[in-house]
Amino acid sequence: MAQAQSEIRYLTPMSVDVKKKKYCRFKRFGINFVDYKDPEFLKKFLNEQGKILPRRITGTSLKFQRRVAQAVKRARHLAILPYVTDLMK
Q1: Which residues pair with 46 in a beta bridge?
Q2: Residue 86 falls within a domain, yes or no?
Q3: Confidence band (pLDDT; 50, 70, 90) for 30?
Q4: How far apart are CA 77 and CA 19, in angstroms?
């Protein structure tokens, strides 16, 4: 009886929070130019409502975050990307 009480079982294994290191995908893959005419690439930096995600979430560097923001704004102006939407992804 004593052995059954000390044995603890979980339905799912205990999760150990392992944080993945954020990185700038532009520096890692050697991307020098952010193309505003490529909406599929720019959607990676937008949330479901079409807002630009901040650096602390995406992990991009300051230099490329500015370029991404400018490219998204240009794509919105040319109607390649919407300004506001529901469930973009």
Answers
A1: 52
A2: yes
A3: very high
A4: 37
Per-residue model confidence (pLDDT) at position 4: 57
* Single pTM value for the model: 0.75
Nearest to 54 by CA among 40, 32, 72: 72
pLDDT in tens, 36-77: 999 999 999 999 999 999 999 999 999 999 999 999 999 999
Question: Where residue 62 sits, what CATH number does that domain have?
Answer: 4.10.640.10
Which single residue is written with the structure tokens 């409502």?
49
CA distance 5 to 59: 46
Question: How many domains, in total, are found in the chain?
Answer: 1
Q: How far is CA 84 from the centre of its chain?
A: 18
